Amino acid sequence: MKFIHLADLHIGKRIANYSLLEDQEFILKQILKEAQKFKPDCFLLCGDIFDRSVPSEEAVQLYNTFITSCSKLAPVFMIAGNHDSGIRLELFNDLLEKSDIYIEGSYQGQIKKISKVINNEKVNFYLLPFFSPSEVRYLKGKPVKTYQEALEAILEEEEINKDDLNILLAHQFFVKDNPVSNSEPTLEIGNLEAINIDSLKDFDYVALGHLHNQHKVGHESIRYCGTPMKYTLNDQTKFLNLITLDKDNLEIKKVELEPLHDIQVIEGTFSELINSNDINKNFVVINLLDKKVIPNVKASLLNKFPNLLQIKYNFENKESIIDSEFDDILNQSSIELLEDFFKKSNFTLTSEEKKLAQNIFTEIEDEIENETIIS
Ligand SMILES: [Mn+2]
Question: Do 319 and 294 meet the contact criterion of CB atoms below 8 Å apart?
């Protein structure tokens, strides 16, 4: 059988204050294009479909278009991640199942199992949304404390028929060797949620979501597919995972996904950057090599880098320079500051505009003075 493994779409996510919807739409269209060529037997979506539990209208629209398009090509299996609202995600799921869209939003005390016959082979899909130990404790009535114990309690009662092809969808933090697994608890926060892969050995493929860079966990068949686009500077190049699986064979074809805008670090002096001919629409962090603070630097650089995330200076004693600049500012009159601001943005105020601004400033200053007297 053939399938496409996706996770961590985080539809509706923003970086700094920029909406990524256009970028996400661009990537999802690429995925659909590849899917049309690959002709999968199903799509697996392993959680963090949305970035927020209450997504924006635009995010819901994009989700709607994408899932509808997927379901026209093949059945869709979906679980909720820790970012999703399980209840919202699984809205109308009984009705959607009639259209071959299977969504499990929250763990109900038993893993949702859907069986299909694909290419004369019985395939069981186990849909396990993100869970916490407390939910499992409550639903199973067992004193589980860790994520590890919770998963063991969940899988204990599942009968997995090894003659069939068994695929698990999950959204947790899996590691090859988990130091927390046995008796010795550790205080390392990063490991508290970790679950080792020992209990996954009965599955032919474990489709994971949660970690954003794609990698296998111990075995080729236990994998995080990663986000379909970069969400941080540290993210690696993104690939779509086209998977062919049968009882004794696993083949993973990777197709590079081209982002609409990349995320990158750019280095240079202010004058180099501002005099470059091109407009760079990537999401950029700029390392400025200048040895002093440039006034209005962000406003100016935004003209060349409209998706500017952050500006960093690389010299020491920055504070003292900023302070002396503050002194300059304090010594200037309002109208001088305004003229300066426009000059740096390449505008010159006409004498008429200057007069108008001066009148406004005088009015405001008078008002402030009067207020001070009254109070
Ligand atoms: Mn995520």
Answer: no
Secondary structure class of 292 (helix, strand, coil): coil
- Cα–Cα distance, 75 to 102 (Å, whole number): 8
Helix (H), strand (E) at residue 115: strand 112-118
Give the Cα separation of 247 and 204 in Å (integer).
7
Q: How far is the CA of 80 from the centre of ligand 1 (A)?
A: 10
Q: How far apart are CA 246 and CA 167, in angstroms?
A: 11
Report pLDDT digits (tens) over 196-236.
999 899 999 999 999 999 999 999 999 999 999 999 988 88
Residue 12 exposed, middle or buried by CB count within 10 Å (0-12, 13-18, 19+): buried
In the numeric block, which tokens belong to residue 121?
Answer: 């082979």
Query: Could you report the per-residue pLDDT of 338-358, keeping only the tens digit for each?
Result: 888 888 777 888 888 888 888
pLDDT for position 94 = 95
Pair 51, 19: CB distance under 8 Å? no
Q: What Cα–Cα distance (Å) separates residue 314 from each residue in 136, 233, 269, 270, 271?
A: 50, 18, 11, 12, 16
Strand-strand pairing, 76-79 and 42-46: parallel
What domains sit in the chain, N to C, each tagged with a CATH number?
A: 2-256 (3.60.21.10), 264-371 (no CATH)
Buried b (16+ CB within 10 A) or exposed e, 60-79: eebbeebbeebbebbbbbbb
Type and span of the H or E element at 102: strand 101-104
57: CA distance to ligand 1 center in Å?
20
Are residues 20 and 258 in contact, defined by beta-carbon separation less than 8 angstroms? no
Say how many Å lie between the CA of residue 267 and the centre of ligand 1. 30
Do residues 50 and 59 touch, judged by C-beta distance below 8 A? yes
Beta bridge partners of 206: 168, 222
CA 36 to mean position of chain CA atoms: 25
- Taking the centre of ligand 1 as the mean of its atom positions, its distance from the CA of residue 130, in whole angstroms, is 11
How close is the Cα of 85 to the center of ligand 1, in Å?
13
Distance 211 CA to ligand 1 centre (A): 6
